[in-house]
């Protein structure tokens, strides 16, 4: 009767599996089938076992059998303890018995894999006793034939998986027991694997020779399975054991087999980066690694000799050979990057290894070169701790003969390696790097022909990142070589540029070959920046090396200055070359005047009449030349100071002649500010007065402000006055550049508060803020008003259309990187816009107005934010009411993208740097309308996104055009960006430098249980704590708290990460003060919101901090407020006894780390393991030894087609 029931259940399960896998069934039928199968998996464990064992028999289809194996694996992984000891033993016996049943030539590979995976799971669950009992029978079984041997290898493969792959089910002692048991068994396992490898590889050769191809395939499958098993031990088994039992030798031998060599390569890829032990086995490790070096180098020698032999044509080397070589090169890179010390003392092997890696580096195939690049970069980075050059002052030996002439702080072992990196190697590295800086898509046909078979980088290559990343690696390598061999690098880069220039001078169409010249500019910049980076004292005793370097670069500079290029594209390239020599000019100022004259010569050679659209190239080139002054001023330091008057006179002359446009004048003015920064504060003030005085006369008159800025229609009129419109643009952008260049150091901008800011009297721009800012505030207020509904409806169509994003902005916003910028919005390398040269010579169109509005907003916000960072001057000289009116009057009409920008560029600096005695005067005016509007807008948009699947944001102008999908993507991104920015602002409120009145966490521990009379009053904290100040002002504080609470329900982990620090400050304030409202909010609302946040998987990244906040609330507030206990008891799966036990556990430890772990355990218990943020931390077990590469072998389709799918243990869900 029982057997009938079992068969009936098996039939039902089989039908359910078939229905669940049949996509022609209705969705209701599939859903019902899945529900039934889940009920089986969670039902009676014995019924599950019996039914699954019935369904893995051959009577059933492969799909049903595979699913049944998964159910058996599910039982072993998750419900094993529910079986009695006798039932577990019986289960294990039946599973082991399946091995013999499945050992059939007709069985599919996936079924064999699942059987082996099941046995391996059982061994892991039962432990060493079963393994020790099972191992002899597995050894015996492997002798019965190739299929049995394949199954044994599969079991051995899956068994150690959890040693190298994190598995939450095998933590602590059980993991160590498994490792110990397998380690003790290595003397049996490794010889067995070697025997199977040797026996079945030999059998493959014999059977193929006898034309028994079917039998040969069985043996080949066993060899493949054995290699995969070996790879499962390669990462952790002692290397001396792998050598001792012949595994290294066996895998090395198989590298000569075209069928199995790619699988064998996986072994060497895994063992090559193994770390050297520090115990007595180190010498055995070195010996084994030396053997691996020999094996891989022998294979490399054969390939490199064959591919470079004059008797072998370029196309005669089969692609499979290159694939194999790529595997070998990858292992060689790992080997040298991790274990070069094993051959460092061998003067025969080390230079041969370096020559082979150089052979890969200069190989025509990009894949081989790319792998070798990683090795040379890692090696040089390790050997030269810094890319510095210290030229020898004695001059006894030239750099070309003295390996130590260009490096410092290198120990003896590194020196012993560097000795072998000689001039020839460095020269070859440089020559190859120079050639490969060119991208194939940019190379002209003539250039490609001259490079021969060299495979340049192309966008078609997959898996190697993008070209900019690859190029940056090449340039880093060039810098390292230049730091080690400065003279070699200088000579090679100069020779290469000379060759290119000569070729261009004789080319019929030089513009087509300009890409090669462009690519070498980066190499020149890298070389010069290292050689003249300040570590060499060229001002002291001059050595032979210094003189030689000077002669090389002087000669190169003279060659560049002699070029008579006047076309825009070559002019831009030549300007960049002169930029690159800036560090050289710092130490050799005699050459500066020639460079300045050349730059002005290039500038004046280009036309200034830019009405014709075809003149865009000339406009771009003129701006680039002006930007060159900035870059040279930064690199040449004080070398330009004697030439400032000459530059100023030339600027004035060109301006009088009408040959210097406003945008160009701004760039040259910016260069002046950079020059002046090297001369001291007085020089800066003088330069600023000279540059800003003419602007103030145009900027401060009230007439134009009343005409254009009194009402929105005045702005409409301004947009029709093209010349004046662009004049305002140039003025505002120059204000921004002046603030950035005038003593506003990066360290100040990145500081945590305003305490370290220079005083107003020290900052050169402080005295100019009083006349700069009032018109700017009126201008920004007028621009903000355009988005007000009542105003925008009345705007002309062209202006209204310009308020939306451009196609380029939309594409960039959603990450469509291939979209091209419109011509009117092309971005310049220094961050300025091509339209920066616009002087109003043409009629204004929609794109012009759009760019003008955007740039005024961008620069205007930056001016305000930078002004706030320069000290008290901004807050004292500016009326807070005027700033608030300008920024907040139309805040409710702002689009999310503009709101985010306002917070980021203006409000965050304003909050950071506002003096505490002015908080009352300044902050509430901004924070109340901001937080109130953001809370309402964000709450609505997030509600729409979570309930309807689409965020509804007010950016109607920004995203009006586009497909529905793109609009949805843009809306969600706009929502998330603003959410993260407002949460970032809240995190700024919690900065320690702005909350000196708050106690530390250590101090909190001493006051948490004191009497209420000992707690501080909130007023005592408000003057020294920005969070305390915020709490005193209910207007901004209540919506800020609401944002804080709601952020935990929004599915944005980054926003929660930012807001968590604000929550921590609230908790500290609640604990250390006697404010009842705050304490009740933290103890109840915030505590519950944080627990709610842990239910979202998106918060997994911050889950540890959230648990820490829960711990702080309970530890420090549960004695003063009943809410924390009430919140916990309101959770669905907790009892009063659970809570009492938790509290008792807390009393036994004072360790915050242990208390957090107890809190985490309680929360998981109380919610029935429903906290997805905590569950998401658990990693799933992933099979790592299944190669994802396609392999060509005689085992062919049986292996590759199955291994591409999820198999074995990885298939368990």
TrEMBL record:
GO molecular function, one term: RNA binding
Gene Ontology CC: one annotated term: RNA nuclear export complex
Record InterPro entries: ARM-like (IPR011989), ARM-type_fold (IPR016024), Exportin-1/Importin-b-like (IPR013598), Exportin-5_C (IPR045478), XPO1/5 (IPR045065)
Signal peptide from the UniProt entry: none
Span of domain Exportin-5 C-terminal: 319-1178
Domain Exportin-1/Importin-beta-like: 109-267
SUPFAM superfamilies: ARM repeat
GO terms, biological process: protein export from nucleus; RNA export from nucleus
PANTHER family in UniProt: EXPORTIN 1/5, EXPORTIN-5
Name recorded for this polypeptide: Protein HASTY 1
Organism: Protea cynaroides
């Amino acid at each position: 009767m029982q057997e009938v029931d079992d068969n009936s259940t098996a039939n039902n399960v089989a039908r359910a599996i078939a229905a669940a896998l049949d996509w022609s069934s209705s969705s209701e039928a599939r859903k019902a089938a899945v529900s039934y199968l889940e009920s089986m998996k969670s039902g009676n464990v014995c019924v599950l076992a019996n039914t699954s064992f019935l369904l893995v028999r051959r009577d059933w289809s492969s799909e049903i059998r595979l699913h049944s194996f998964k159910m058996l694996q599910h039982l072993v992984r998750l419900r094993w303890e529910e079986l009695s000891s006798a039932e577990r033993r019986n289960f294990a016996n039946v599973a082991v018995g399946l091995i013999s049943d499945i050992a059939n030539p007709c069985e599919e590979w996936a079924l064999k894999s699942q059987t082996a995976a099941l046995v391996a799971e059982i061994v892991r669950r039962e432990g060493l006793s079963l393994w020790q009992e099972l191992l002899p029978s597995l050894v015996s079984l492997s002798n019965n034939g190739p299929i049995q041997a394949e199954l044994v290898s599969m079991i051995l493969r899956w068994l150690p998986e959890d040693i190298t792959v994190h598995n939450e089910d095998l933590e602590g002692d059980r993991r160590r027991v498994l490792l110990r048991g397998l380690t003790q068994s290595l003397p049996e396992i490794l010889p067995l694997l070697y025997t199977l490898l040797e026996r079945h590889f030999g059998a493959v050769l014999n059977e193929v020779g006898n034309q028994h191809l079917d039998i040969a395939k069985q043996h080949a499958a066993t060899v493949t399975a054995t290699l995969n098993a070996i790879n499962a031990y390669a990462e952790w088994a002692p290397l001396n054991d792998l050598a001792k039992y012949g595994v290294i030798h066996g895998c090395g031998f198989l590298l000569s087999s075209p069928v199995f060599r790619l699988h064998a390569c996986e072994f060497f890829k895994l063992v090559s980066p193994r770390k050297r032990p520090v115990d007595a086995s180190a010498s055995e490790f070195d010996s084994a690694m030396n053997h691996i070096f020999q094996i891989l180098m022998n294979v490399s020698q054969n390939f490199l000799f064959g591919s470079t032999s004059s008797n072998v044509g370029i196309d005669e080397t089969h692609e499979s050979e290159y694939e194999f070589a790529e595997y070998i090169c990858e292992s060689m890179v790992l080997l040298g990057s991790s274990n070069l010390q094993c051959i460092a003392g061998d003067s025969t092997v080390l230079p041969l290894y370096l020559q082979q890696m150089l052979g890969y580096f200069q190989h025509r195939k990009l894949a081989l070169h790319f792998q070798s690049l990683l090795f040379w970069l890692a090696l040089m980075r390790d050997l030269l701790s810094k890319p510095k050059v210290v030229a020898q002052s004695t001059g006894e030996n030239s750099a070309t003969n003295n390996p130590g002439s260009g490096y410092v702080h290198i120990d003896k072992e590194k020196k012993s390696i560097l000795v072998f990196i000689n001039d020839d190697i460095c020269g070859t590295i440089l020559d190859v790097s120079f050639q490969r800086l060119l991208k194939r898509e940019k190379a002209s046909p003539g250039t490609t022909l001259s490079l021969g078979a060299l495979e340049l980088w192309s966008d078609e290559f997959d898996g190697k990142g993008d070209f900019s990343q690859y190029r940056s690696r090449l340039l880093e390598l060039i810098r390292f070589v230049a730091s080690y061999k400065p003279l070699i690098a200088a000579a090679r880069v100069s020779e290469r540029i000379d060759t290119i220039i000569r070729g261009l001078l004789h080319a019929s169409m030089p513009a087509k070959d300009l890409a090669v010249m462009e690519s070498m500019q980066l190499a020149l910049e890298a070389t010069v920046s290292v050689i003249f980076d300040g570590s060499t004292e060229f001002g002291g005793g001059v050595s032979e090396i210094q003189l030689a370097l000077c002669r090389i670069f002087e000669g190169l500079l003279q060659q560049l200055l002699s070029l008579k290029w006047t076309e825009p594209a070559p002019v831009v390239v030549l300007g960049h070359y002169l930029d690159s020599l800036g560090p050289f000019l710092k130490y050799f100022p005699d050459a500066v005047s020639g460079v300045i004259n050349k730059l002005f010569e290039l500038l004046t050679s280009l036309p200034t009449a830019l009405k014709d659209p075809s003149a865009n190239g000339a406009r771009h080139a003129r701006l680039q030349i002006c930007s060159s002054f900035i870059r040279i001023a930064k690199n040449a330091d004080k070398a330009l100071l004697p030439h400032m008057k000459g530059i100023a006179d030339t600027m004035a002359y060109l301006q009088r002649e009408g040959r210097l446009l406003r945008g160009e004048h701004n760039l040259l003015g910016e260069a002046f500010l950079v020059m002046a920064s090297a001369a001291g504060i007085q020089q800066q003030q003088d330069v600023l007065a000279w540059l800003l005085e003419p602007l103030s006369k145009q900027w401060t008159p009230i007439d134009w402000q009343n005409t254009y800025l009194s009402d929105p229609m005045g702005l409409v009129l301004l947009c029709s006055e093209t010349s004046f419109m662009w004049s305002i643009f140039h003025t505002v952008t120059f204000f921004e550049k002046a603030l950035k260049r005038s003593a506003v150091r990066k360290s100040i901008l990145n500081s945590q508060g305003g305490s370290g800011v220079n005083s107003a009297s020290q900052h050169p721009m402080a005295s100019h803020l009083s006349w700069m800012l009032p018109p700017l505030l009126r201008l920004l207020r007028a621009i903000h008003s355009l988005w007000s509904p009542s105003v925008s409806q009345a705007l002309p169509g062209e202006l209204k259309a310009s308020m939306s994003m451009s196609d380029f902005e939309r594409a960039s916003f959603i990450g469509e990187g291939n979209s091209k910028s419109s011509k009117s919005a092309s971005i310049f390398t220094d961050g300025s816009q091509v339209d920066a040269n616009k002087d109003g010579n043409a009629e204004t169109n929609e794109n012009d107005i759009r760019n003008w509005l955007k740039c005024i907003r961008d620069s205007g916000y930056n001016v305000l934010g930078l002004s706030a960072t320069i000290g008290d001057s901004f807050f004292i000289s500016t009326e807070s009411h005027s700033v608030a009116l300008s920024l907040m009057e139309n805040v409710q009409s702002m689009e999310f993208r503009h709101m985010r920008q306002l917070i980021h560029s203006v409000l965050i600096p304003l909050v950071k740097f506002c003096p505490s005695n002015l908080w009352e005067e300044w902050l509430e005016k901004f924070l109340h309308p901001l937080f109130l509007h953001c809370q309402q807008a964000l709450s609505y948009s997030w509600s729409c996104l979570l309930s309807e699947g689409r965020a509804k944001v007010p950016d109607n102008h920004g995203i009006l055009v586009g497909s529905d999908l793109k609009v949805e993507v843009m809306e969600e991104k706009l929502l998330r960006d603003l959410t993260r920015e407002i949460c970032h602002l809240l995190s700024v409120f919690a900065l320690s430098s702005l909350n000196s009145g708050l106690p530390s966490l250590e101090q909190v521990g001493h006051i948490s249980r004191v009497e209420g009379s000992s707690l501080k009053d909130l007023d005592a904290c408000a003057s020294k704590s920005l969070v305390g100040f915020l709490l005193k002002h209910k207007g901004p504080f209540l919506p800020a708290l609401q944002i804080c609470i709601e952020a935990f329900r929004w599915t944005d982990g980054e926003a929660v990460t930012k807001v968590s620090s604000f929550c921590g400050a609230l908790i500290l304030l609640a604990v250390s003060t006697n404010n009842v409202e705050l304490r009740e909010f933290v103890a109840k609302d915030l505590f519950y919101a944080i627990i709610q946040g842990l239910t979202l998987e998106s918060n997994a990244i911050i889950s540890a901090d959230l648990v820490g906040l829960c711990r702080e609330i309970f530890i420090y507030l549960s004695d003063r407020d009943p809410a924390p206990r009430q919140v916990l008891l309101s959770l669905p799966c907790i009892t009063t006894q659970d809570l009492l036990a938790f509290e008792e556990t807390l009393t036994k430890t004072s360790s915050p780390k242990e208390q957090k772990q107890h809190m985490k355990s309680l929360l998981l218990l109380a919610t029935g393991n429903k906290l997805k943020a905590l569950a998401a931390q658990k990693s799933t077990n992933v099979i790592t030894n299944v190669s994802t590469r396609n392999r060509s072998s005689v085992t062919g389709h049986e292996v590759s087609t199955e291994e591409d799918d999820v198999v074995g243990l990885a298939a368990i869900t």
